[in-house]
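HUMAN: Ready with one sample?

ASSISTANT:
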Amino acid sequence: MRMKTTTLADIKRETGLEVLDHLEIEVAIPVLGGVQAQGDLIVIPLALVEDEVSVVAWARWRSVPRAGIELLRGAAGGNPHTLVTEPGGGRWTVEVRDPVGLALGVLHCTTTAYLIHPEHGGSGIAAGRYVIRRQREQGGWQRDSFQLIAD
């Protein structure tokens, strides 16, 4: 059985999102069910961090529209990271509890979701529940100092 693959060209055609010319838009976007990073974001299966991150009981979930949800825009108004799914394929909430303050929200998708960035291209997220967080790195020479990764 041959599974359908999705390319950046497919996403561009279906959503109107643009990517930069240096990207090969006819290459299949890989789909992963584990931890993955894209620039300054990291996608983590919720089960791996459920002791730290949780959806609040009163959370409002919204369907991910086909045009996508802009999750984060790069430093100084740069390029956005946009989350897209097929219609009815995903729900998103920003109403989460995260003591370290890195979570942007939680995605629950029943079909493949895609994280699209004009410079980085696309990454596929397998069906499941994920927390999408900012990434951080150790800052300077101080061991306990961290800074957000700027894309």
